[in-house]
Design goal:
- This protein folds into two domains: 101 residues, Translation Initiation Factor IF3 (2-Layer Sandwich); 106 residues, Alpha-Beta Plaits.
- 27% of the residues lie in helices and 33% in strands.
- Helix 2 runs antiparallel to helix 4.
Amino acid sequence: MMRVKKIVPILLVLAGFAGVTSAQSIQVNRDNKTITINTSDEATAIADIAAVTIGFQIYGSDSQGTYADGGKLSHAIMDAMRKLGIKDENIESAGQGLEHNSNFDDKTLADERAKKQFMFHQSWTISVPPVNSAEVIRVAIAAGANESGGIEWRFADRKSLQAKAAANALVKARAVAEEMAEGLHVKLGALIYASNEMPRVAMFRRMGVMNTESASVASSSPSVAAAPLEIRPQTIREEATVYAVFAIE
């Protein structure tokens, strides 16, 4: 599950509440009888965007040949994505590069070393509705993308989810304040101030990348018809913390 704490402009939540003042004007003392609540709540929604990582890694005996093979495979994968109906604006390059390969151990045969002197890699992020994510992975792998499968789950209308979390936190704050007021045998008055805490860093959980065995060139073996994976979108969670001050009568 994803959990993100965000700054939510509290004015979006407080529409309709009277008596909201600035933080500098709040005086908590004997003359200004208040109840202060600091509480958190969340709002959830099913992810409506799957940002799928697809990519490949190949090896070759020389830099130019490896780069040329990488270029052919790169175009083949992108052509497969476009045939699937993926628009260019939903495709983002994530990384690419040609490197000299020195990742050998003592058991690596000389012939194998010679064939894998250079390594080329490239990857993209494909943003699609969750229902299409499995097919993107299947088609990409069939086209030669041997490092594919990572998914970052997103929700398009993140601001509305953040506002809902803040609203839920404010409702919770009033409920807690009412219980406190009842225990103190006083009557809870109006909300006179509210704000939110600073956010935490956003954390996203990604699905593991499927890494099939890398080849020196694009695979020429016959493609095997495979059913798409069973993939279900994650639940996106937004958490908000509010600091609320209520008058008591």
